[in-house]
Amino acid sequence: MNDDYLEIRGLSVDFDGFKAIDDVDLTLLQGRLHFLIGPNGAGKTTLVDAVTGLVPATGLVRYRNQDLLRTKPHRIVRAGIGRTFQTATVFEGLSVLQNLDIAGGVHRRAWRMGLARRGTPSYVAEALETIGLAGLRDRPAGVLAHGQKQWLEIGMLLVQDARVMLLDEPVAGMSAEEREQTGDLLRRIGRERTIVVIEHDMDFVRSYADVVTVMHAGKVLAEGTVAAIQADPRVQQVYLGRTAEEADHA
Amino acid sequence: MKQLQNWGRTWGPLLGIAVIAIALLVVAPAVLSPFRLNNLGKYVCWAIAGVGIGLAWGRGGMLVMGQGVFFGLGGYAMAMHLKLEAAMATGGPDAVPDFMVLYGDGTMPGWWAPFRSGAFTLAAIVMVPAVVAAVLGWAIFKRRVKGAYFAILTQALAVAFATLLVATIKQTGGFNGLNQFTVFFGYNLYDPTNKRMVYTIAATALVVCLVVVWQLYRSRFGELLVATRDAEERVRFLGHDPANVKLVAFVLAAVMVSVGGALFAPITGIISPSDVDATASILLIAGVALGGRALLLGPAVGALAVGFGRTTLSETFPDQWTYFLGLLFIVVVLFFPAGLGSVSSQVVGRLRTLLPTPRRTPIAAGTDALEVAP
Fold first, then answer.
1. Minimum distance, in Å, between the CA of residue B108 and any CA atom of chain A
2. What does the alpha-carbon distance between residue A109 and residue A95 come to, in Å, rounded to a whole number?
3. Which three-class secondary structure state does DSSP give residue A247?
4. Contact B27, B242 (CB under 8 A)
5. CA Rg, chain A, in Å?
6. Which of these, B242, B300, B324, B332, lies nearest to B45 by C-alpha position?
7. What ipTM goes with this model?
């Protein structure tokens, strides 16, 4: 194994006495699609917030010998850790191309920011192909369909060279077809990256997850393959009970 | 067609700058009387400041309510030099400015001495506001102070700065400010040819500032600045510290405003606290808001128009002109919040929604959206 993994040890987030994250240990390895599931309020998003420097936390989050809890948010991004948000946050007024380009700061020296873009940088062209939006490159991001916006966000992570991608509900609100495309996209780019997906949709989790971590009340409840997780009685009790019903609908 | 569009987007604004350059540098000197030309020079100085405010406020989203401070830093630096030049022209190399004899004991504070040098003065006009803005901006933006708090803070600075100037009559001329300049870097200011030269310098400075922001707005930094204005937290997760992005724009804006102030002193022959206080700062912003703060040419044209309007209205209606100005702003803010420069695009947009077009015209490269204020 190489050292391309994200290690979380004893991570806690305290909101005025309320433990949103309570002593969580997690190791996220490269090349696996890692899913983070759990009921609402389990602390999944807060975990991502803590890792990316959005909320203060205690414990240890280490990536390539760098302690992320002592690193500023934009430096964490520069270290190769990118995230998306539950609602797509692309720059609606900018074109698809500009959205991708603006994420490419890691490829540029500061003084070159004063120059206009000429042509399409190779890393942007590559990301456009990967996310399948090459035909829409000059469209304003605001007119994209919901699913396309999420892909654009993933593309922005590709451009910013994120080795670790933390995706907060990327397929929420997507059609079945879009979900499948997203899953395949994640598989493709996940081979050489560490990808963590927060997800509620159990069908999606079953189809694409290599590893699933179940969170409940700020703690890690169980971790393993989808089958192992579904067989775990504790998980069934707090979480899958409800999802099993949902699965019956589907 | 698309190539033509792209070409227009890149070079169209330069054409606009060229029109302004010809109007200010060729047409105006030919048709205006020396008195009117000098008045225009004054508006040009406000326009230079306006370009800086457009950069910080229109593109950067920082409502800079106290740019009078930087206008004053440049203005007073220049005025101190001119004051010393005037004194030295009559009283020899060690002469001190007249007001120091009048109000004080005739000794000059040590920090005035370097301003005997023209080169030092020019450097100070650029460096002092840059350093002040950098320190101030660093403290403000790293602490993530923004919105109304930022506006109030900068406004308070302008008030404090003007109060300080009034209180230090022996060092800065106090309420009267600095005036009665006779020489501008060796050129006699009573000679109309030299006055015209100062005007030409100001007009050239305005054109240079416009070209600088044109390049800035089309650069990656320009895109990043707008992105920071619209979604600061999102920019953080692109790997940029938004504080640094804003800081660069804030410092550049401060330098431009300072240059405007520096040229204001020789053109009007006076710089006083009333040129740099809160009211003056708001009038600077007013021109920018009127013209369109996020547009390239809007701030400059707006500032010129407000300057012209102030003079014309105050000549015709000495007592009521401020009401007209106020009314104009109410109308603009109500109907054209993005400034008068956006009227045409607003009308086109309205028409587009009214006409039943089968498909929306694809907007290439998104620069149209960039032109619209938030």
1. 42
2. 23
3. helix
4. no
5. 18
6. B300
7. 0.84
Residues of B in contact with A105 (CB under 8 A): 224, 238-240
Indicate the pairing of strand A194-198 with strand A33-37. Answer: parallel
- Residue from B235, B237, B360, B367 to probe the interface with A (highest A Cβ count within 10 Å): B237
Long-range CB contacts (< 8 A, 24+ apart) of B224-227?
B224/A102, B224/A105, B224/A113, B225/B59, B225/B60, B225/B249, B226/A93, B226/A94, B226/B59, B226/B370, B227/A91, B227/A94, B227/A102
Q: How far is residue A73's CA from residue A52's CA, in Å, rounded to a whole number?
A: 6
Burial A59-95 (b: 16+ CB within 10 A, else e): bebebeeeebbebebbebbbbbbbbbbeebebbbbbb
Which residue intervals of A132-201 are DSSP H helices? 146-159, 176-190
Interface probe, candidates A76, A92, A101, A138, chain B, greatest B C-beta count within 10 A:
A138
Dig out the tokens for B26 from the structure. 């060729």
Amino acid identity, position B26: V
Closest-CA residue of chain A to B236 = A74
Say whether A162 sits in a helix, a strand or coil. Answer: coil
- pLDDT by residue for chain B (374 residues), tens only, comes to 667 777 777 788 899 999 999 999 999 999 999 999 999 999 999 999 999 999 999 999 999 999 999 999 999 999 999 999 999 998 888 889 989 988 888 889 999 999 999 999 999 999 999 999 999 999 999 998 888 899 999 999 999 999 999 999 999 999 999 999 999 999 999 999 999 999 999 999 999 999 999 999 999 999 999 999 988 888 999 989 999 999 999 999 999 999 999 999 999 999 999 999 998 999 899 899 989 998 999 999 999 999 998 888 888 887 787 788 788 878 887 888 788 877 777 777 777 777 654 444 443 333 333 333 33
User: Phi then psi for A83, rounded to 5 degrees?
Assistant: -145, 160
A195, β-bridge pairs: A33, A165
Residue B250 identity: F
CB neighbour burial string for A215-247, b if at least 16 within 10 angstroms, e if fewer: bbebbbbbbeebeebbebeebeebbbeebeeee
In this prediction the pTM is 0.88
d(CA B342, CA B362): 20
Distance in angstroms (rounded) separating the CA atoms of residues B278 and B67: 9
Chain A residues within 8 A (CB-CB) of chain B? 52, 72-74, 77-78, 82-83, 89, 91-95, 97-98, 101-103, 105-106, 108, 112-117, 138-143, 156, 160
User: How far is A42 from chain B, CA to nearest CA, in Å?
Assistant: 24
What is the least distance, in Å, from the CA of B368 to any CA of chain A?
8
Helix or strand holding residue B277 (H, E): none
Minimal-distance CA residue of chain B relative to A72? B241
